[in-house]
Design brief:
heterodimer; A: about 600 residues; two-stranded antiparallel sheet; about 60% helix; about 10% strand; B: about 80 residues; five-stranded antiparallel β-sheet; 2 helices; 5 strands
């Protein structure tokens, strides 16, 4: 873009408190002409779009915040952004049913002298609850334009859109009234409250529906019960709905592979690279997508309906025992499906140390990638007998609970080591918004943005690592063709580490499996199938396992998989979210050591049992 | 000894009279953003299981925070 074109672009920033409908307003302004980017140095997203009726106007959706005072990461990022980016105008979005918050923000913007307008959103809700505001009086008192709109219903937007399209310069005029920069936040809040109370013509009635629903969902007993049941539904959905969808994705990609193979030479480096290396990587990314989609669907549902802060409220005390907070529950539950989206969803945790602890223990939650290994070993070595439940079911429950328990114990220890001070209690100040019906469009846009972020950021790493693994398992080519996988680079690595893993009951073949599973845990099954020259179908693998392994080795393998951080993708995401290698390296070392020592003890004891 | 918000029962209202010196400045700012500052009327409306955290109503808004914080907010019950 030339400098003259850049100058012609006018920038408008959207600011608003959480739950004010800012995202919906942003979507109305930009349509689908938006993209997600990151602020430098922080894990906050910013959305940028072009105004759909005038592409010379750029709309920037800033993080939701309550004030410009630097009391939160969002406020600091916003203040820096406003200083560096030189926006031409700011639209402040507020809830019509709680205008003081919006007036407070608008007054703080006026202290910066950036031109601004105030949009009182949710006019439909205000009307349904019997409220009325004197918009003209408010506009006169503030000295800025005030609009009453409903981004959901489209009320009040038509004329505004036309004005923004045809006379955008009207929006870039500074306020007629100035607010003294020297006023403290408290003084501004007192002014905002007085102003807000003075323009209410009819007071809004209490939200009867929200109050009745909260009577159940926040009840000391029923609220906790609903919480547990709701999350069981999420948990079960991720496992039962995602699995057939992942299979469908895999089958579809296999079909696609067959078709494009026709365009490639029959064999050769390029063909093998594309089919074995890149394709495996793409499948490795694609099979995660159904789980991520389902998980983020529920996250969107909870965020947009208003249940998310209530879930944090209900679970907070339990989480606090382990140095965590209510906001940690969802990331940890998500990690039962896959640690990657679980770690990504820790961004909602305000306290830095609590967020790091949640990230650190997420891989301890037994993810779905461990399931094939658990299932195979349990079926091969645990007898099919009933003790109220089947012994195999008890074994699976024990594996899940033990992994999670060690994770929580780790959290409690980290709380002491990282000196999570008593002050962290002060970080939990949570507004409980009214319940609102989420729109399908908002959920769809939210899902698309999350999926795209996952594919573009994490997906690249997974594909690269799959290519590296393919090279390790397939080369030196001639040696592998003549003598099998034991002569590959991975085979050599397996033999090199054999003395180290022998005390755990593992030989070089399992060693290759452990090396390959660093890319993705479930890969160990297909790798072992190649090594033992059997087929991946479970009956044949079960028979092979029984033949090639002792029960002591099998139990040792289970324990190793329970604790080891065998997922480069997770390491990559942790590195990105913690902005450095310190935490992922510490996680890898700690979990590897724990896996090693636990396996060692279990194997040595099992041998003689 | 001044009465603190942690002593307030569900359904009761009080006027906020001050904050403990042990509260961080950041915390006071966060509370201010929620409409919680001196001379405001606050009502306790809900307690979680184990009575912590609690939900309060201020200016028609619901806000949740832990008892650690409510023990450091001074009130005068109405």
């Amino acid at each position: 873009m030339s400098s003259s074109e850049e100058k012609a672009i006018k920038k408008i920033a959207l600011i608003g408190t959480p739950n004010c409908g800012k995202t919906l307003f942003f979507n109305r302004l930009t349509g689908l002409r938006q993209k997600v980017a990151n602020y430098t140095g922080v894990t906050l997203d910013k959305k940028i779009g072009k105004y759909k009726f005038n592409s010379s106007i750029e709309i920037i959706d800033l993080p939701g915040l309550y004030s410009l005072a630097p009391s939160s990461l969002e406020a600091k990022v916003t203040a820096n952004f406003l200083e560096e980016e030189k926006v031409d105008a700011i639209f402040v979005i507020a809830e019509s049913t709680d205008i003081v918050k919006g007036i407070f923000l608008a007054m703080q913007i006026q202290q910066t002298n950036i031109p601004c307008q105030l949009f009182l959103n949710m006019e439909d809700e205000l009307t349904s609850r019997g409220g009325k505001i004197d918009i003209k009086k408010l506009s006169n008192q503030l000295g800025i334009d005030v609009y009453s709109i409903s981004a959901l219903k489209g009320w009040g937007l038509k004329d505004f859109f036309v004005k923004l399209k045809n006379s955008p310069q009207d929006f870039f005029v500074p306020s007629k009234k100035k607010i003294d920069k020297k006023l403290s936040p408290l003084e501004v809040m007192q002014k905002a409250k007085k102003c807000g109370e003075g323009v209410v013509l009819k007071k809004v009635q209490s939200d009867v529906f929200s109050e009745k629903l909260d009577g159940i969902l926040l009840h000391r007993f029923w609220g906790s019960l609903f919480f547990i049941l709701f999350f069981i539904v999420i948990f079960q959905s991720i496992f039962s709905w995602a699995s057939p969808l992942s299979d469908l994705v895999e089958v579809s990609l296999e079909w696609l592979k067959e078709k494009w193979s026709l365009l490639l030479p029959e064999s050769g480096f390029v063909t093998d690279l594309i089919n074995e290396g890149i394709f495996s990587g793409i499948v490795g990314v694609a099979v995660f997508l159904p789980q991520i989609l389902i998980l983020f669907f529920f996250i969107a549902l909870m965020e947009f309906s208003g249940y998310m802060p209530r879930a944090s409220f209900v679970s907070d005390k339990t989480m606090e025992k382990f140095g965590l907070q209510g906001g940690s529950f969802l990331p940890l539950l998500s990690s039962f499906a896959c640690a990657i989206p679980g770690i990504l969803s820790t961004r909602t945790i305000a306290n830095k140390k609590q967020r790091l602890i949640t990230i650190f223990i997420s891989p301890f939650m037994p993810c779905s990638a461990r399931l094939p290994v658990y299932t195979l070993v349990v079926l091969a070595f645990i007898p099919d007998e009933n003790y109220i439940l089947n012994l195999r079911t008890w074994a699976m429950i024990a594996l899940y609970l033990l992994g999670a328990l060690v994770g929580f114990i780790t959290a409690a220890v980290l709380k002491k080591i990282w000196k999570v001070k008593e002050d962290y209690h002060q970080d939990y100040i949570q507004e409980i918004p009214p319940y609102r019906m989420p729109t399908l469009k908002s959920i769809a846009i939210f899902l698309w943005q999350k999926i795209w972020t996952f594919i573009s950021k994490t997906g690249k790493i997974i594909v690269v690592l799959s290519i590296v693994l393919w090279i390790l398992l397939s080369y030196p080519k001639k040696a592998v063709e003549e003598n099998g996988i034991s002569k590959s680079y991975a085979g050599t690595m397996g033999k090199v580490i054999e003395p180290v893993i022998e005390p755990l009951g593992f030989d070089w073949r399992v060693g290759i499996g452990l090396v390959s599973s660093l890319a993705a845990r479930e890969v160990v099954i297909s790798t072992l199938a190649i090594i033992y020259q059997t087929e991946e179908e479970s009956d044949k693998m079960i028979e092979t396992f029984k033949k090639e392994m002792t029960s002591a080795t099998a139990v040792s393998l289970l324990v190793f998989f329970m604790f080891a951080l065998q997922c480069f993708s997770t390491i990559a995401v942790v590195k990105k979210e913690t902005m450095g290698w310190k935490i992922p390296i510490a996680m890898f070392i700690y979990m590897s050591a724990l896996a090693y020592v636990s396996s060692l003890i279990v194997y040595q004891v099992s041998r003689f049992a | 000894m001044k009465e603190t918000l942690s002593n307030l029962s569900i359904g009761k209202k009080a006027i906020i009279k001050g904050f403990s010196e042990y509260l961080l400045e950041n915390t006071k700012l966060n509370l201010l953003e929620m409409g919680i500052f001196e001379e405001q009327v606050i009502e306790k409306i809900q307690e979680a299981t184990f009575s912590d955290p609690c939900i309060y109503s201020i200016q028609g808004r619901k806000v949740a925070f832990r008892n650690y914080l409510s023990e450091r907010i001074q009130i005068e019950e109405i």
